[in-house]
Design a protein that fits this description.
Shape: elongated
CATH topology of one domain: Helix Hairpins
Oligomer: single chain
Order of helices and strands: HHHHHHHEHEEEEEEEEEEHEEEEH
CATH class of one domain: Mainly Alpha
Radius of gyration: 31 Å
Structural class: alpha+beta
Distance between the termini: 98 Å
Largest sheet: 4 strands, mixed
Helix content: 10-25%
Strand order of the largest sheet: 10-11-15-14
Bound molecules: zinc ion
Number of helices: 10
Length: about 375
């Protein structure tokens, strides 16, 4: 254990320059109630599952709340300002990374679990509990974000697409361990088996001895006598991979698909991050999408409008007959039920609940005749309409 002059044990010392009050948008004198309210608002706003969400900001907001939402940590933060970094005697608080360990998670978050309600369902995935305690020291691989453009019809009915990714993958030679096959496990020379290294850091408070997780053994205290030659002991290497992605029927432009564990592989057997695919939907000149409805326009003649007719309307299912009733006015909209986009959520043959789909709405325009012949004009006048 290393003590510095103000009596706080530093666990993982990183200089922090974030203004947590600013991040939550609250005053320095804000009450716990105001802080909690601000946190909830921002967490909902930035939640990555939401449209317009922002994972980086979401993490930042969580980090800020962990400190300001806890009286003790807040006091330390206020006292030591930007030099404060997770300085806490009991450990258990390692910033965002600490969430991987569920015990830390519940400690840091027991206040908010009930407050967050529905958004909490998604947090476990984002924070990757999958690592488990035994891997608490190994760093999960980074998430990857890519965008993928699909045709209008592919977004409507779903599709399977292949994407090419350059990412870190598990080394097949050492199966991610980083050890040359046949090499022995020995005590890590860098940290002497302690799993941590000590370094002196010069700060405004004077010199601080900082304990850091050993980078050679990732804190395990053990190392292999020979590093894997293929991955230089990292357990991973970069490779180009082709990945099949299922585009769900009904996805809208900007929708995000998350593929758990398809991000960057973590080093030395640590779990992989997630892959976020933002779907961009190409425009179709014939159709406009409004929610799960598809809107198109059609021209009808003066005679069709007056006398009624059956006309072909181009829909995503192909041409469909639409009955134009007698006396239809220009600008009238007709709704063709179930010819729109499948509802994304729920199950069913179209991916929607009971196969339910939006509608196709046709707005008709009556074309007033131009360049009439003298005879046509005469007849129209005779009709007197
Ligand atoms: Zn290897
Ligand atoms: Zn070591």
């Amino acid at each position: 254990m290393i003590w510095i002059w103000f009596g706080v044990r530093i666990l993982d010392f990183r200089i922090m320059s974030k203004d947590y009050y600013n991040i939550l948008g609250v005053d320095k004198n804000a009450s716990q109630d105001e802080i909690k309210k601000a946190f909830r608002k921002k967490a909902h706003q930035y939640h990555p599952d939401k449209k317009g969400g922002d994972e980086a900001k979401f993490k930042e907001v969580n980090e800020a709340y962990q400190v300001l939402g806890n009286e003790k940590k807040r006091a330390q933060y206020d006292q030591f300002g930007s030099a404060f970094e997770h300085a806490q005697a009991g450990g258990g608080f390692h910033g965002f990374e600490g969430f991987r360990d569920f015990s830390n998670f519940s400690e840091g978050f027991n206040v908010d679990m009930s407050d967050l309600g529905d958004i909490f369902g998604g947090i476990g995935d984002i924070f990757g509990f999958g690592g488990g305690r035994g891997r608490a020291r190994t760093k999960k691989g980074a998430d990857i974000q890519v965008s993928l453009t699909v045709e209008f019809n592919e977004a409507v009915f779903g599709a399977e697409k292949e994407i090419r990714l350059n990412k870190t993958v598990q080394c097949d030679k050492c199966e991610g361990s980083g050890a040359e096959p046949g090499s022995k496990i020995e005590t890590c020379k860098t940290c002497g088996g302690k799993g941590q290294t000590t370094r002196t850091q010069r700060t405004i408070f004077g010199n601080i001895e900082v304990q850091m997780t050993c980078s050679d053994c990732s804190g395990e205290g053990r190392a292999y006598s020979q590093k894997c030659a293929k991955c230089r002991g990292l357990g991973v290497y970069r490779d180009t991979v082709n990945l099949k992605v299922k585009i769900p029927a009904g996805i809208n432009d900007g929708g995000v698909i998350r593929l758990t564990g398809q991000g960057e592989q973590g080093r030395k057997g640590a779990p992989a991050g997630d892959l976020y695919i933002q779907v961009r939907v190409k425009k179709d000149a014939r159709f406009e999408r409004v929610g799960d409805d598809i809107v198109s326009e059609a021209d009808i003649s003066f005679t069709q409008a007056a006398l009624g007719d059956k006309i072909d309307i181009e829909t995503v299912d192909g041409p469909v007959k639409l009955k134009i009733p007698e006396g239809t006015q220009s600008g009238t909209s007709f709704r063709m039920r179930g010819k729109g986009v499948p509802h994304l959520k729920g199950k069913g043959p179209f991916g929607g609940a009971h196969g339910k789909r939006g509608d196709h709405i046709v707005k008709v325009h009556v074309k007033t005749p131009r360049n009439l012949s003298r005879k046509q004009k005469k007849l129209l006048r005779e009709l007197g309409i």
